[in-house]
Specification:
Oligomer: single chain
Number of helices: 5
Order of helices and strands: EHEEHEEEHHEHEE
Strand order of the largest sheet: 1-2-3-4
């Protein structure tokens, strides 16, 4: 499960599976944190599951990195591209660790970065039966316009309690 530092700082999520009767073979929590702002006492560092924090090469505070290491967190430095962590380097590192499936549960900036880079295989979106009229976008970034947007297929909607889960597969470019 991957989130950005903004989600960790705003929501302090645990990023664990807590549904009764649900088993997950191996869960690894991943945080994209270019400036290494993740607090050592954040819930993602509690030892419930392995945690990897990716930060920009040379940007890591040694004291913060040591504090995270002391909590069992693996801190990995990767290059930055246009002021953002290289998602390709992140994904290659995760692949080298034999992590082959990734749920990106980040905020708008993280979702937008994955869409911009073409690293989206599928989408799962929960819709609650409330219209607020304001809020944050699902994805932020450069924007693609209608013709170049992320095309989806096999779109399905399922009721989950009072909510609706919409799932779809991304149509590969090519």
């Amino acid at each position: 499960v991957l989130v950005g530092a903004g989600t960790v700082l705003a929501d302090d999520p645990r990023l664990t599976v807590r549904l009764p009767g649900t088993r997950v073979a191996t869960l690894v929590r991943v945080v994209l944190d270019g400036r290494l702002r993740t607090p050592a006492r954040a819930k993602v560092t509690n030892g419930d599951a392995p945690t990897i924090v990716f930060t920009a090469r040379g940007a890591a505070s040694r004291a913060r990195a040591r504090a995270l290491h002391a909590r069992g967190v693996q801190v990995v430095e990767v290059p930055s591209v246009r002021g953002r962590l290289s998602l390709l380097a992140v994904l290659r590192t995760l692949g080298a660790l034999d992590i082959q499936s990734l749920l990106v549960e980040g905020g708008a900036a993280v979702h937008g970065a994955f869409i911009d880079e073409g690293f989206v295989d599928g989408v799962a979106l929960f819709l609650a039966p409330r219209l607020l009229g304001a809020g944050v976008p699902i994805a932020a970034g450069r924007g693609r316009g209608l013709l170049r947007g992320l095309a989806l297929e096999e779109v399905r909607a399922t009721s989950v309690g009072p909510d609706i889960l919409v799932t779809a597969q991304a149509i590969p470019k090519g």
